[in-house]
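Quiz preparation item.
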């Protein structure tokens, strides 16, 4: 199996490592707009060879598109124009707008829209790590618009990565990821900005930062180039979640002003119910 990965960053690079190690791929071809990224991927042995997009597609069985979701709107139709029997998949964090854009493409059935729910706050080929996907969940969206053979092949790929595969409609996926992923990033960015604005003593931040603070702001290290397009494409769902989040913060603020610590105790106990869901 020859696999081309378009976009050799954290997700694409980590897939390259694992798919080669587990034997699903015999050869990994890299495609990237950045020559520097391709050179790094070659040096780290993430890819076996670098090629142009057209040559990579012709040489591949599967093409994995792992680029920012705004760029995907332009690049994915170009890829589908060139495929014959190859299967194409993406790993983007939003789905509705992308899948609408290719709904009537003659090669739509060769494409499988996916979102592996895995990652770190780092980016680029140097961030790629083995076993990133172990025991995580991946979502296949609008599977009925893909051929059965294409979906089965991509499910096998994800099974080889030791992932749990579920199917979901694209609109439902975008709503749920707004709650469990996108709002987490906005909250982290906002907290980092708050601390940087109020605490000018950088050494104090470093000296006093506990593991709780570090884990909460970890996502604030994430790439703006990746996340701004996600916020743009999932804007309406994120705004809905953000309004509710602001409402929850306002409750804490109101009770603190009133010195109503009994109500704060109740809010914390209500929030503790998340343990049941996550366990």
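Solution:
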């Amino acid at each position: 199996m020859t696999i081309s990965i378009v976009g050799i960053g954290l997700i694409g690079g980590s897939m390259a490592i694992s798919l080669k190690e587990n034997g699903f791929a015999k050869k990994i071809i890299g495609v990237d707009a950045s020559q520097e990224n391709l050179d790094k991927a070659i040096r780290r042995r993430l890819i076996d060879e670098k090629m142009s997009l057209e040559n990579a597609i012709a040489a591949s069985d599967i093409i994995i598109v792992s680029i920012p979701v705004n760029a995907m709107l332009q690049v994915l139709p170009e890829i589908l124009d060139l495929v014959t029997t190859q299967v194409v998949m993406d790993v983007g964090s939003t789905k509705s707008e992308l899948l609408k854009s290719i709904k009537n493409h003659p090669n739509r059935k060769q494409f499988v829209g996916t979102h592996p729910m895995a990652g770190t706050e780092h980016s680029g080929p140097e961030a790629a790590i083995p076993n990133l996907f172990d025991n995580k969940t991946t979502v296949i969206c609008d599977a009925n618009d893909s051929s059965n053979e294409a979906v089965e092949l991509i499910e096998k790929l994800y099974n080889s990565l030791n992932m749990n595969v579920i199917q979901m409609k694209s609109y439902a996926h975008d709503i749920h990821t707004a709650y469990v992923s996108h709002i987490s990033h906005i909250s982290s960015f906002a907290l980092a900005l708050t601390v940087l604005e109020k605490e000018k003593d950088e050494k104090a931040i470093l000296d006093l930062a506990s593991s709780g603070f570090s884990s909460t702001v970890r996502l604030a290290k994430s790439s703006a180039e990746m996340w701004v397009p996600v916020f743009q494409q999932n804007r309406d769902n994120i705004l809905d979640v953000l309004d509710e989040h602001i409402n929850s913060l306002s409750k804490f603020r109101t009770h603190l002003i009133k010195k109503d610590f009994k109500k704060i105790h109740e809010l914390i106990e209500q929030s503790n119910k998340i343990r049941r869901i996550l366990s």
